[in-house]
Amino acid sequence: MTQVPQNPTSAPPGAPSGATPEGMVALTIDGHRVVVPKGTNVLEAARTLGNDISAFCYHPGLEVVAQCRQCLVSIEKNPKLQPSCQQVAAEGMVVHTVDPQSTLARKQQLEFTLLNHPIDCPICDKAGECTLQRLYFDHDNADSRVDVPKVRKDKVVDVGPEIVLDQERCILCSRCIRACDEVAGQHQLEFANRGDHQVLTTAPGEQLDNPYSLNTVDVCPVGALTAKDFRFTMRAWELEATPSVCNGCATGCNIEIHHKHGRAWRLVPRHNPDVNKYWMCDEGRFTYHGLREERLAAATVEGLPAGWDRAMASAAKRLGVFLKDGSQIGVVLSAQHTNEDNFALASLAKQWGVKQVYLAGRPPVPARADGKLRVADVNPNTNGVKAIADALGFTLTPAYELDNNVPPTLRALIILGDVFAGIDAGKLRELDVISIAAHERGPVPHAKVALPAAAWAENAGTITNAQGRVQRMHAAFTPPGNAIAAWEAVVRLAHATGIKLTWTHAREVFKDMTAAVPAWKELTWAREARPLQLRFAGSRG
Amino acid sequence: MATDSTLKQLVLGRKDAADLSDTETELPPDLMTVNMGPSHPAMHGTVRIVLTVDGERIVKSDVQPGYLHRCFEKESEYATYTQVFPYTDRLNYVSPMINNVGWAMAVEKLMDLTPLIPKRVEYIRVIVSEMSRMTDHLTCVGASAMELGAFTAFLYFLKAREWLYELLEVVSGARLTHSYVRVGGVAKDLPDGFHDQLTLTLDKIEPVMVEVEGMLSNNKIFRDRMAGVGAMTKEEAIATGCVGPIARACGVDYDVRRDHPYSVYPEVEFDVPLGTTGDCYDRYLVRIVELKQSIRILRQCLQQIPDGPTMVDDHRVALPPKRDTYNTIESMIRHFKHIMDGIRVPPGEAYTFVEGGNGEVGFYIVADGTGRPYKAYCRSPSFVHLSTAGQLIHNHLIADVVPIFGMINMIGGECDK
Prior knowledge:
The complex is a heterodimer of chains A (541) and B (417).
Chain A: E1 24-29, E2 32-37, H1 42-48, E3 72-75, E4 82-83, E5 94-96, H2 100-114, H3 131-139, E6 157-158, E7 163-165, H4 175-184, E8 189-192, E9 199-202, H5 215-219, E10 225-227, E11 240-245, E12 254-260, E13 263-269, H6 282-285, E14 299-301, E15 304-306, H7 308-320, E16 329-334, H8 339-352, E17 356-360, H9 382-391, E18 396-398, E19 412-416, E20 432-437, E21 449-452, E22 461-464, E23 470-473, H10 486-496, H11 506-516, E24 532-533
Parallel strand pairs in A: 1-5, 16-17, 16-19, 17-18, 19-20, 20-21
Antiparallel strand pairs in A: 1-2, 3-4, 3-5, 6-7, 7-10, 8-9, 11-12, 11-24, 12-13, 14-15, 14-21, 22-23
Chain B: H1 4-12, H2 22-25, E1 32-36, E2 48-54, E3 57-64, H3 72-76, H4 84-89, H5 96-110, H6 119-147, H7 151-172, E4 181-182, E5 185-186, H8 194-216, H9 220-226, H10 234-240, H11 244-249, H12 256-259, H13 280-304, H14 322-327, H15 329-340, E6 348-356, E7 359-367, E8 375-379, H16 381-387, H17 389-393, H18 398-408, H19 412-416
Antiparallel strand pairs in B: 1-2, 2-3, 4-5, 6-7, 7-8
């Protein structure tokens, strides 16, 4: 331990000192001693101190290339400045990030990057969440010294079905190239030409069409790559972000819903090292469009709009005659709905003495499975419903068996969700079908009574992914019209049939549910997340 | 068929004295509770007082402010530092410029900009502050006189106030809510010919002052209503935290401009008037003298104001010129960041206070390094002064509430924040 700085002023008072723990290295950054795991680079080590060394090409989820030279720092006993992203922290290393030499180098690098950057902020979709804007404002903020015309390149290059490239805005950091190589495993982007004529372009014979292509838009530190789906629709700083989980498939990628005025404008991945790291697939990003399609905003009785009171009275009247015998009622749980929604309906079924419990969901798409994030099961909560049914002692029958095998005793059916794949819903017209769904499709148009429910982005609850990981979703905005959370509709239905369910909040359903399902005993309900105004969240990227 | 007297009683709700029985003509011996406000024609601002009166004498009062609460402090947490200026305009809306200056000084203190502010900016800030102080005192004295029946004095002073408002409109573009000051400077330079216009206005105001003083100062009715009414001792004023003209009328020798000098106040000469009795008449006299002192300060400033920039040359706070904004990416980004994210204020906390129309206006800001305040607090003199109102009107007649409230000069926007 002779390398620990001898000068007592180089470590702040109270800083840990002495022997470095196993598997860790201790280094000094700007006089502060920092201990990090072996193999950590100097940039990440500095970030643990809250020291934000500017960088463009470095992304924690991608290979390090040290291409942008924006993170240069001085390291003692090293004659030249070193890129801190590539420099692995070593025991006893003494790093300076605020010394005149490296500060000047980074400022000049920024000036160089801005040299040919077009004056596009007012029309650029990245403005407000642009790394270049943030780093210039925080680290340089100097006037322009350019007195020659900027180099012009192509402005609107159609590089793929989802993405448009602006070559002038590109700062040649190569993040997108690496994202295609490493996340999608497809080499679709390339640099061409040299010097100030260097441009980003598609690789020969390729276009940017891999299923993870929109991650390149996220990692782009400027507005060079923009999503056709989002560009020119909404300014980024106007949006609010609510953490949630993608409902597109059983992977359960962690996402942020970016919303404004009660509607979602885009979905972006949220870092979770155990599930999706920094990424998500393009298909998942587009699931927000469905939130506004064919919504059931009011209860219906026999296909006509009704208030909640009339719908409840009608449902109670229809169910009343069958409630004495549990075999006359069937319940369909939904792999598209949260654990809470399913637990509420399953609990009610238990109290009614229901024997027939089905599981509805979208049929698997084997072609999707790629060993990365996309899996065949396109239902977000198959595992959760199975666990709940197990815990309550139900045997789940696949819902498609209803297509040709309706049990003769069955008189009424409570269906959660709007997905009823493989069934001709018209065959159920003899039954008293009560639907609880967010969208008016599948079994809903054939239901005698349909109750409007919140869609996934409007719902606070949990879903269980393919790993069996129970993940929390936060409600981004309120559901349209008279729709309420599905578990709450179940509570109303229970009250209408004279059964007392006392839940008034999803966390109360969650509490009873975790008590009932053995594997979920340890789970706790986290605080509700307040929407984060992106305008004040600092620049991202 | 109703008799005449019962018909009258039904229609008018009262009887003729002749129709009353003996017990009815006697005043009730128990106390009566009446409401004054929230919207009362003889009251400054929107404030409700629940008075318990014994005949005409007030034995108990409950002063209830809050009708103009606009969450100034909470709103500030959701606006950039620059966007707070319009909110400060609506604090003391009779002298908004002083609030502007106070807020700007607090942010500048956080950014260590105070010594770098150009001299011309400081002079402009003092000029607009003193003009605002004059509008504040003219309104207060004029309105109080009107509430006591002296309508002419009111019209004369409001005429003088309007000259100043017109001039402030020429400077800032808005008659009342100026939003003229910026962090690090002012929005734009004084317009051409401002020097002459202000001199002319001051020359016109001085005779108006003489006229109104002649109408009020030795007016028997005015003196009877003001002198000896609502008096407060020096000790009481200090104990309750009174500041400004009210404290000075009680003999508290304290003026922020002189005792904690800021801006260029050390470079101008002015006197701080003091009262002796601390009653409403002294408060009136102090304000009249302060008006004259403001004119004196303004004339000195007009002589001493240097040429120079109207914004500190610091990229952290100064917007780039429009020409650069549209032609260089560096200025474009800086402009965008200043407007959208706000000027970046380093973490820390600061309190600054300036002499407002009603006394010490203070702004306390906690910054967390982002573009908007983590917490903002405003020390508003009106709120402190209003807290003494219940004590001051105690044992006075209901009619005395009017001059006492007039001279406390509660400004709803500032009191309720």
